[in-house]
Amino acid sequence: MAQHLHQITAQGLEELKKEKEHILTVDIEANKIAIQEARALGDLSENSEYSAAKEEQAKLNARLAEIEDILKYHEIIREEWLKVEFTETGLVKSFQLVGITEADPEDNKVSKESPIGKAVQGRKIGDIVTYTSGTGKKITIKILEKGKLKA
């Protein structure tokens, strides 16, 4: 079975590499110390500090595995930016289309796999597009501007 390629921008890939390095050099080391200190408190069966440190260890290991999977199986995509008008309200919004691992709506970064991301791919300036949001609502937008960012 073929491995799914994670779509990611060059900038996103660099940020993941930095996050991996931080986890390996800072977070895991701090967690090891927390586990040792919690062990020193005695009975592990009722030691909430130990349980919390072990839970944090599991989260760090899971995130590290996720990052390593993305770094191993990825394809670099170029970021696209768009300016759209929501026809029902007249609201104009600009955002970047990025890979799913980089999506951050608060930072105006929208996944190419999201409903709006899928709807605008392959469209051109002036196109009017209707898509169904994640909540099931039909939304119509007009593409006002569109372009690629440097890779």
Explain this structure:
Helices cover 40% and strands 27% of the residues. The chain is built from 3 helices and 7 strands. The strands form 2 sheets. The chain has a 5-stranded mixed sheet. Strands 1-2 form a two-stranded parallel sheet. Helix 1 (10-39) runs antiparallel to helix 2. The chain is elongated and about 65 Å long. The mean pLDDT is 90.
Name of the CATH class of the largest domain:
Mainly Alpha
The low-confidence parts are none
Strand content: 25-35%
Report the principal-axis shape. Answer: elongated
Give the tally of β-strands: 7
- The CATH H-level superfamily of the largest domain is Transcription elongation factor, GreA/GreB, N-terminal domain
Distance between the termini: 30 Å
Number of H/I helices: 3
Count of discrete structural domains: 2
Query: Gyration radius, to the nearest Å?
Result: 21 Å
Largest sheet features: 5 strands, mixed
Helix content: 40-55%
Strand order of the largest sheet: 5-4-3-7-6
The helix/strand series, from N terminus to C terminus, equals EHHEEEEHEE
* Secondary-structure content class: alpha/beta
Instruction: Write the CATH architecture name of the largest domain.
Output: Orthogonal Bundle
Here the CATH topology of the largest domain equals Helix Hairpins
The average pLDDT is: 90
